[in-house]
Amino acid sequence: MTTSKANPKVDAFIANAKKWQEELKKLRAILLDSELTEEFKWSQPCYTFQGKNVVVISGMKESCAFAFFKGALLKDVHGVLTRPGQHSQSTRWFKFASVREIAEMKSVVKAYIREAIEVENAGLKVKLKKTSDLKFPEEFQIMLDEFPELKTAFEALTPGRQRAYIYHFSAPKQSKTREARVRKFMPHILKGKGLLDE
């Protein structure tokens, strides 16, 4: 097995981490002892295989995370992977709150890294839900049918922005609340903005 070369940007990232320094060092050591290449993307350590993103590590408030980009394709025989968010389709992560936890899970982490590399070697892809597969709330569909310019603007948004709106509009239990949300964000959509854009 080839040992990956340390990236100086990751050295700096860990040195400047306000929390989880020792945990990040431990996770990094495991990753450097694999076939993955250490890079620095999106302001965090990223580990790739033949140019494909496989894992990122990061420190958060309550824990540090070890996230697999295609975690949904891993068998997760130990049942330790979770979704970062309710609507996460591909990414799955381990979360650690101590060096001891990482040490106890080291062999599992290494096995999952090997499996993630196999997933890349096989060229497997996560089948992502398309926006068209999602159920549009009736209140939003009525507006889209009533205002062709709204429909055009919505269709021009990126798929991620479209999904964010659909999830947001679908969340309330009451129809009047769903309708209020749609009306509130119509100007945003017409301006080509996403749900969280200013």
What is the mean predicted local confidence, pLDDT?
89
Q: Report the span from N to C terminus.
A: 48 Å
Number of self-contained structural domains: 2
Count helical runs: 7
Note the overall shape: elongated
CATH names the topology of the largest domain as: Aspartate Aminotransferase, domain 1
Could you give the topology of this structure?
Layout: H1 8-16, H2 21-32, E1 37-41, E2 44-49, E3 52-59, E4 64-68, E5 92-96, H3 99-121, H4 138-146, H5 148-156, H6 159-170, H7 175-190
Antiparallel strand pairs: 1-2, 2-3, 3-4, 4-5
Helix pairs in contact: 2-3, 4-5
Give keywords.
5-stranded antiparallel β-sheet; 198 residues; elongated; alpha+beta; Aspartate Aminotransferase, domain 1; 2 domains; single chain; 7 helices
Word description of this protein:
The protein is of the alpha+beta class. The protein has 2 domains: 114 residues, Aspartate Aminotransferase, domain 1 (Alpha-Beta Complex); 60 residues, no CATH class. Helices cover 45% and strands 15% of the residues. The chain has a 5-stranded antiparallel sheet with strand order 1-2-3-4-5. β2 and β3 form a beta hairpin. The longest helix has 23 residues. The mean pLDDT is 89.
What is the structure about, briefly put?
This protein is an alpha+beta fold and 198 residues long.
